[in-house]
Structure to design on (381 residues):
């Protein structure tokens, strides 16, 4: 339901990066999304073309890496994959777990077509 | 026609085709998609801290009794804590009017079609709240068990309400929302004896399955039953916040 607002925030950030890097075109965007972020990747992919329409990211490819839900148990020390509605240690059922992955909602990288050759824009700290 | 001047390219890319050097680059970003919201939320939180205000975000499905709980809470806290309310709804000022009728400042945010509050909406509403004069700010989120969980508002604590008429499997069905809860309230508890399909123990077990150790209280705001532990919790969270903001800002944010 809120994927379009998430998508708009994403596109604003992508366009800001494109402008900062003096890019003429955005060709690809890569995200990392976990189920516990509350965002459904399929809906995000559906909203994306609408959000980029009329911008320099129109037609760009959206790639979404979906992360598994994984917890580390403080009691038995093991790391296990687990389910949305059951976030306990899959081995000993302990509730003393820390989420290792599964709640990501990250903009990982942006692929740009640059206007001119420049080494500076390749450095992440310029983003 | 030819492959050198770009005249055979689609219209959108003609503008760039004359440039002698084209280079593509992958820029690594690794930023949260809602970074702007999160930055605004941090700003809101610092604003609350600067005034020693405790901000509590109330989330639940529509009709689970958020406004009724607030009405009862305002009455009970009147002598001890100064309260203000931000109300989030798609439409109408009804909820804010109910709060104002108690003589408490209330700002209504009408989100139109948006299914959640975000940090920018709350920031805008804060301009109408005098934080100098309050101790606890309740933010009543849009009734929805999905979307509000993804947006930090700058609150210090999340309270999720689950009414007895909704079903005890809600924490399992809406894990993103319920694992964000610092406190779960089972509301409309006066109806429990008449409901043969809601067991508080099941609701609590479903919450614990999310590796949540959040406290759970049963209450009925309408019948004034079981409010004491909830009021005690608000007081104790306010005391914690009060002690926290007395520390230097660097220690707080760290």
């Amino acid at each position: 339901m809120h994927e379009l607002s998430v998508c708009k925030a994403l596109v604003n950030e992508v366009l800001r990066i494109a402008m900062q890097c003096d890019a003429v075109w955005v060709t690809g965007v890569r995200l990392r999304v976990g189920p516990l972020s509350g965002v459904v990747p399929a809906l995000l992919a559906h909203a994306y073309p609408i959000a980029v329409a009329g911008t320099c990211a129109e037609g760009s490819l959206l790639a979404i890496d979906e992360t598994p839900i994984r917890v580390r148990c403080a009691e038995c020390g093991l790391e296990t994959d687990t389910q949305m509605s059951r976030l306990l240690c899959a081995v000993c059922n302990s509730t003393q777990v820390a989420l290792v992955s599964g709640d990501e909602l990250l903009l990982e990288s942006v692929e740009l077509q640059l206007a001119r050759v420049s080494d500076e824009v390749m450095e992440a700290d310029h983003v | 026609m030819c492959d050198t001047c770009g005249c055979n390219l689609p219209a959108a890319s003609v503008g760039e085709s004359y440039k002698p050097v084209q280079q593509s680059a992958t820029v690594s970003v690794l930023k949260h998609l809602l970074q702007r919201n999160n930055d605004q939320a941090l700003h809101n939180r610092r604003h609350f801290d600067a005034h020693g205000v405790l901000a509590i975000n109330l989330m639940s499905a529509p009709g689970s009794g958020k406004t009724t709980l607030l009405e009862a809470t305002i009455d009970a806290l009147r002598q001890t804590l100064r309260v203000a309310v931000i109300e989030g709804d798609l439409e109408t000022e009804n909820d804010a009017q109910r709060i104002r009728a108690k003589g408490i400042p209330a700002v209504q945010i009408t989100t139109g079609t948006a299914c959640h509050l975000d940090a920018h909406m709350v920031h805008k509403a804060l301009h109408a709240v005098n934080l100098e004069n309050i101790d606890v700010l309740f933010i009543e989120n849009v009734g929805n068990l999905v979307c509000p969980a993804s947006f930090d508002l700058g609150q210090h604590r999340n309270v999720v309400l689950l009414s007895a008429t909704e079903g005890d499997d809600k924490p399992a069905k809406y894990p993103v929302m319920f694992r964000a809860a610092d406190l779960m309230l089972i509301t409309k508890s006066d109806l429990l004896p008449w409901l043969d399909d809601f067991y508080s123990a099941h609701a609590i077990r479903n919450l614990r399955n999310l590796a949540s150790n959040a406290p759970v209280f049963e209450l009925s705001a309408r019948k004034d039953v079981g409010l004491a532990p909830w009021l005690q919790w608000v007081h104790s969270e306010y005391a914690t916040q009060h002690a926290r903001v007395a520390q230097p800002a660097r220690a707080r944010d760290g």
Notes: Confidence is low (pLDDT under 50) at residues 1-7 of chain B. The first strand of chain B starts at residue 23 and ends at 32. The longest helix of chain B spans residues 227-245.
